[in-house]
Amino acid sequence: MEFKNATIIKKANVYFDGRVTSRTVLFQDGTKKTLGFMQSGEYEFNTDTEELMEIIGGEMDIMQKNETSFTTYKEGQSFVVPANSSFKIIVKSFSDYCCSYR
Fold first, then answer.
1. Deepest of 5, 20, 28, 83, by most Cβ within 10 A of its Cβ?
2. Which residues pair with 64 in a beta bridge?
3. Could you read off the pLDDT of 4-52 as tens digits, one per residue?
């Protein structure tokens, strides 16, 4: 994966005592992505806008708001989280991801 004509914010976004980190990538057309890494653990995130999560490496189990079970996503797979929602994540070893905000 390669991004052209992008600006990267150097300061990391750090969550859950440093177990989840990401860097923000801004594009000339106003779109935004984050490139991140999650260590093993259980996390919950809220969304303001719709998000496309692409798994670049590793895997994660996801349960979105109003779901009753987890679905496993592995390298090369993706999922969409609606705006104004939430999702739970279980990472067993690690996960490398790209999140696109729509």
1. 20
2. 87
3. 899 999 999 999 999 999 999 999 999 999 999 999 999 999 999 999 9
| Rg of the Cα atoms in the chain | 13
Answer positive or negative: Cα dihedral of 69, 73, 92, 39: negative
Q: Render pLDDT for 42-89 as a digit per residue (tens, 0 to 9).
A: 999 999 999 999 999 999 999 999 999 999 999 999 999 999 999 999
CA distance 82 to 97: 18
Question: What DSSP letter does each residue of 1-65 carry, written as one string?
Answer: ----SEEE--SPEEEGGGTEEEEEEEETTS-EEEEEEEEEEEEEEE-SS-EEEEEEEEEEEEEET
